[in-house]
Amino acid sequence: MSDCDVLIIGAGHNALVCGGYLAKAGYKVIMLERRHTVGGAVVTEEIIPGFKFDLGGSAHILIHHTPIIQDLNLTAYGLEYIDLDPLFFAPFPDGSHITIWKDLDKTCESIAQISTRDAEAYRQFIKTWEPLAEGMVKSFLEPPTAMNLLKNLVLRTGGGSARNERLSDILRGYGQVLRQSFTDPRVQALIGWMAAQSGPPPGEPLSAPFALWQPMYHRSGMKRPRGGSGMLTQALAHMIQAHGGQIIAGAPVARILVEKGRASGAETTGGIRVTARAVVSGAHIQTTMKMLEPNVVPQEARNLANHARVGNGFGMIVRYAMQELPNYTALPSLNGAPGPQHTALQFICPDLAYLERAYGDYLGGIPSRDPALIAMTFSAVDPTLAPPGKHTLFLWGQYYPYELASGASWDEIGQSVADRMLDKLAEYAPNVKTAVVGQLVEHPLYLERELGLLRGNVMHLEMSIDQMFMLRPALTMSNYRAPVKGLYLTGASTHPGGGIMGASGRNAAQVILRDLGQKKV
Predict the structure, then answer these.
(1) What integer is the mean pLDDT of 60-85?
(2) pTM of the model
(3) Sequential DSSP letters for 239-269
């Protein structure tokens, strides 16, 4: 007899979602997590006394396009979401600003303050691309197949000549699509910087869909778990445990056990051995392959996994404990009180050329000299994150290479690069320089060491079109089945990729449930 029905390696949010569906269906689940707590890159910890820092993802947008919260009844396990509106706030060097609200009319009113022409263009942009964006959501909630892509994407681009024109746009880079859709560089930059969060630069061919997702922000809005991003994964863990599942933290897996050509369990570095009818890896695809003995994986499959492009890092983030919120010159605070600009994600990216220069630095192996930033001040709406009257500031920047052309170590230069990020924010909100109480610098090497994000890539693998849908992580593994019988895959290495969505975990669970025979009880 096996120790459990399904053993899951790793307890990131996708692995937990997968475990939640399996436990709900009546299967006995055991999870082995490398770190001291569950959550993977969706975790919140008190690094500075009194201040709660997320160590990974912070803004919860994508998961609200899925039924996961309702399916797993996570509110019953302590999850409480706070609606964040507005979603995005972008100040500019000339003192102007744009605010993106969930409500389309309010958003267009904000854009009209700088460009009436682009306000109308934005409304049309949302209307034109909404069917395609809806199709993308549907495609994310299913295993990727040619038929799914045809019905969810191609057939949602309109008919006749309109379809041909829109298909042509999809093949372009999002920078080109935005430049042809809007006249004001500030509007282009706001949409483009959000599109860039998946990784590809504005000029990369076939990256347009990252900008064409824009309509969905007005559909789902943005939310935030009260108590920190990690409250999502804590609720998932509690749900699994309530259904008889077991989660063992501080238990790094050394190897996946394979008997008679079938995955049969795993063994930890500490000697814990767990057997199972099926095994799921929520770890990076290349980390997963290292857990398997060379002789049990076909060489072709191993080559495909090893050749999956991790890239040279991506971004970095600095977490600050603050005396006060950023006071933006473009929209000053009233007596330091939180305003709508502090509810939103705060974008520092004046135009697409600025973003392209930052990417150029990254290609040259140097940290971005003028970084594009997102500032997040969730303590403005959630006082549980900081002591009374204090605040948190999370500062995300792109692009930052893991491997530096100078040969320097991130442990050596991390602080100076973090200081440059704060200097850049201070150009828009001068008070931040003197408001810092404490900080945590999460450079690319830190992200690899602490969160298992190889080479600091928060998406596991680059999110270019040749590594998406049926090609993620490889053509023969895109159905969440590894090249060893009884071994399954989930996490950001698989479709639909990175971000706090949980779709990979849900999709993988559906595949496993079909293979195991659906509900056990």
Answers:
(1) 98
(2) 0.97
(3) HHHHTT-EEE-S--EEEEEEETTEEEEEEET
